[in-house]
Amino acid sequence: DTGVSQDPRHKITKRGQNVTFRCDPISEHNRLYWYRQTLGQGPEFLTYFQNEAQLEKSRLLSDRFSAERPKGSFSTLEIQRTEQGDSAMYLCASSPGKSQGEKLFFGSGTQLSVL
Amino acid sequence: QQQVKQSPQSLIVQKGGISIINCAYENTAFDYFPWYQQFPGKGPALLIAIRPDVSEKKEGRFTISFNKSAKQFSLHIMDSQPGDSATYFCAASPAYQLIWGAGTKLIIKP
Fold first, then answer.
1. Structural Rg of chain B based on CA atoms
2. According to the model, what pLDDT value does residue A40 have?
3. What is the pLDDT confidence band of residue B23, given thresholds at 50, 70 and 90?
């Protein structure tokens, strides 16, 4: 399977703990995106990478959130000092990077529950 | 100005019927309008997309109608099947990020 993979699929943590999620995009894709989705809502944009460069970050994103994409391959999303409001599905997507509006390929997400 | 408003929130359609979901946007800078389908426990998957230089795009049973002057676009699913039961999201793109609607939960009754 050469789709976007995310790990772990589920994460349960206690408030105040740090968590890290991993995303492996489709190998030839240059762009990588992180979105957050809560129940009954559409995905909310968090951040976007072109190769290893983080080009855009949502202004709504707390500084407790940080993302990296070393060497332009896989990406990690870290949430420090988790809060109950961080409970959501965290989705990673990748795209070829050939045009401004193009098909995003999503992974199945990491479901985070903060107790 | 960054919002995309989607309706209805939920929709029940008989098998073989036409499912219609509507979206409206405000920002005239949006230039890419995709529809995504999402099944429980999965990420969204692109269904069909349109750019504002055309008023309609059809792919199989799925059609997007686009009204630039009204700033509205809609998804039509012809001959709806039980396998189409899913949540559908419209979105609009001003640049590299997508602005998403809140979703429509579609149920096709056999």
1. 13
2. 87
3. very high
Secondary element (H or E) of residue B50: strand B45-50
Whether chain B has a CB inside 8 Å of the CB on A70: the answer is: no
For CA atoms A99, A73, A38, A108, the dihedral sign is positive
Which residues on B lie below 8 Å from A42 (Cβ)? Answer: 4, 6, 89, 91, 100-103
Looking at the complex, does the CB of residue B98 fall below 8 Å from at least one CB of chain A? Answer: yes
A95 is written with which tokens? Answer: 């795209």
Residues with Cβ within 8 Å of residue A25, at least 6 apart in sequence: A4, A32, A73, A74, A75, A92, A93, A94, A105
pLDDT digits (tens, 9 = 90+) for A87-105: 999 999 999 988 777 899 9
CB A12 within 8 A of CB A87: no
